[in-house]
Design goal:
By secondary structure, this protein is an alpha/beta fold. It contains 28 helices and 22 strands.
Amino acid sequence: MGMQGMFCERCKSLMPPGSTRCRTCGAPIDGSSVSSQSCLFSDSMEWKSRKPVETKVVEGAEYMPYEPRGCQMMIIEDIRNALDEGRHIVIESGTGTGKTIVSLAAALEHAVPRGKKIVYLTRTISQSDQVMRELRSISTIKSVSGTAVTGRNKSCPLYRGSPGFESLPPNVLSMMCDERKQKSNKGQAGGCRYYDRVKTELPSIESYCKKELPTSETLDRFCEGRGACPYESKKALMREMDVVAVPYVHILSPDIRNNLMANLNTAGDASGLTLVIDEAHNFIDAARSEESFEIDARLVDSAIDECDAMKRAEVAPGIRMAEFIRYFKSCMRAVATEKMGLGQKEYVFDGDFIEERMMSRFDMSRGDLSMAIDTIAEIGEERTKLLMEGGDTRISELETLGKAMQNWCTVSSKRFVRTMKIDQDGEYLSASCIEPEDISLFLRGIPGSVHMSGTLQPLNQYARVLGLPETTRFRTYPSPFPPENRKVVYVDGVTTRQADMRSDPGMQNRIERHIVRLCESVDKNTLVFFTSYNNMRTMRPYIELHLNKDLYWEESRNLRRTMASLDQFRAGRNGVFFSVMGGSVAEGMDFPGDELCFAIIVGIPYPPPSPEMQAMSAMFDERYGPGKGWLYCSEVPALRKMKQAIGRLIRTETDRGMAVILDSRASRYAKQLEATLSSDPAGEATRFFLGRREFLRK
């Protein structure tokens, strides 16, 4: 449930809660007209201070607490039927269809009678907060329970505030926790006072959780107020809950997934789970990233320095560990000097160059090499244990390096692209997963899951890449918002294609002039999306010189400054924010009402060429036919990014927005983007928004 937003009687615009005048037309707001669903509000507002949303029992959907709109009943029925039949379902559902509430309503109807646990996967904490808000609404008509879980680095009250704590890897935090808990269980000094209180406080925490259905952060504060560990409390509560909202990593990481399933009392039996994956267009890349890894020079140097502190100094008879690791480092350098030309930043391994050199240098077989690397990992684990016992929160660099070397020597060349790369910090080995096998095997062992996003087409491509069964169902549903509230055009004669920009020296300036004219054509908040930070950086001087508006810029590698600029932009009504497609602003932010009205997309955001991209493209060509590699690896990701950027414009029934694509190549995707060619985009923008003002005067 949530405080209700109010509609202006004059222009029908949706206003934030508490408004006294309409932001669009200035008419007074008397609070007599209110919104009907609860997905439009800021995460920072305390839900208990809001007016209750009117809820009712919906015939044919016993867990749907709102009057259904658009195609919501159809979505619920399709999800419920697929899950009941043990099928996976892949859904593209337009903005405004209420994906969170309909997926919960359908999944609960399937799971509760069967005693299953719903695991709702989210990319961000704000999305898990939305799950809890919708569960509160459901609880007004039907008994339901749930909790949102974040990692130890977000919920641990004992170590929070310690330098570098939030960046520690999960396995390190787990070891730190385990050592403290063991001491507590044995009654020894040095335990965890918050863990000690969990057992006695759990009944009160469970009662609070089931009654209030709090967000993760709110539950953390409640647990801390009672002196209990939030993380351990949530672990204990999981098996009593109908719904558990967790970040992607809780399913993508095998170790964390096993712990999750054990806490849910479903260990070794995935049939007891119903999985819902939100923002599924991000899920495959997250799965690839989870299986990928790197070995950099800093890690190797740190491991060498650590060798002096270890009593066990040999990895094999007569072979000292420091000498073995130093030669591994020299092999990395040999790749850079022998395999890479002058100025080359990347080399793709087509064999076992490093392994073969190591075996030759130390007169080892493949098995001997593996045993030596295993020894490094074992010594590292012993070192980590000693560090923990001494109160040091570091994990041994020897353990990290040893496990990374184990992975490097065992990864499949078909599923991984192994490269040597060089950047400003030096050379490093990279093993990039192009086919996430682990999560595919897990999903195929579940009798049904829900994959949903506003930008997921082509749906069969998503299912193929993720390895879903052939029985998977595909569904698309349109947005219920008025189509006349949204306009998309593209411009001919300009492109950010590098070859064209190099051959036409005037191309960049034509794009810059388009951007300035478009921004000046409207008195509206405007987002300008570039395909790369480099393009944004090179065009910034001209824009700042010629555009007389409040300008805000996304800062690469400086999230704090970016968020501060974004807050200022959203607070105004005639500023311009410059960003990059695929970033947090393009995908993760909502801009209701007049916070955003106009978007300018500078170029088509095809992924830059890379060995990983080439390998994936070749794999898809071989597997699914010629041309599928370009479609799956370049066209589909570019279209999804553009749709995500355009989707920022229309978030409520009364939003109006226009997007202009500054690239002639958009003509190839005019149908998918619902875009038309414009010879006067600035004029069309003026007329589009002027038409709104003329309507208000009548």
